[in-house]
Every structure is written in structure tokens, then in C-alpha cells.
Specification:
two-stranded antiparallel ribbon; mainly alpha; single chain
Amino acid sequence: MHANKFHLLGNMLFLFFFGSGLEKMVGSVRLFFIFIAGGALSMFLSVLYYAHNQPSLGASGAISTILATLMLINPWRISVLLTFVPVPIGVAGFTFCLINLKGLFIDYLHPPEGGMQVAYLAHIIGFMVGIFFGVFLTASWKKNLLMCVIQFVCYYFLLRLVFRFV
């Protein structure tokens, strides 16, 4: 089930790009396990927060898990899906987290009429589950996580400089 056709299309697009990249590195069986575990954990751990709202739909938590796992295994992989320009996946991953943290905060302060629209907390939990899988699957996770943070900080610092002088 999905909220609408765009929700389904978006999930399919992200799953195709991030899932196929991770599958090449860990294989189909591990990808399947990561997807199912990420989806189940993000749903079960966020259900208490969303219990008063509408039920959650989609596979976004599972896809968030795949994104974070891929980010820790290969921090130099390039993505255009979240920023619409080619960036290292660490930039995309942490940008995704900030967008979801902001959305969660805004929804908390001003709940949308008609109930929940986006399961921001499920996305964040899925991302954290993906960090766990990345730690489990690569010995160089500390170096890769640091590289992702450096990529993120440098990208937005340079972006700020560009817009300041343009």
C-alpha cells in the first residue's frame, strides 16, 4: 500500500538506485534482509509516536535503511536523487536526515490537518538501522562515517560560499 502514485514511484526510484548499488556490494540475500529488517524496525519503533495518527504506509523506512547502509559501505558513491546535483552519498544521506528532522519538528509543532502525511520518524529510524547494518558490514565504518560527515560539512560550506559571492 502507498499513499498515492507519486509515493509509490518515489519509493521505487530510490529503491532502484540505492538498492541496486547496495546489492552489488552485499548480494541479493543480504539486501533482502536489510530491506525487510529496516522496514520492520522503522515501523515498529515509530508506531508508538504515530499511534494517535493515521497508519503509516510505504517502504520509506526500509529504503532509508538501504541509503544509510550504502553510505557507510561506499561513502564516495555519487547520488543525484536527494540534491538534484551529483554529490557523494554522505551529503545525500545527511541531507535526507536533516530534511526529516525538520519535518518531524514542524509536524510536532503544527500537526497537519487530516493526520500524518509523511512518516518522518520512520525515515529517521530506518536511517539509524542502516547505520547499524553499515557498522556490521564494513570494518572501515568509522573512517567512512567520518568521511560522510566531512563531505556533508564541506559541501554546504562551499555552497554557502558560492551563494554569498554570486
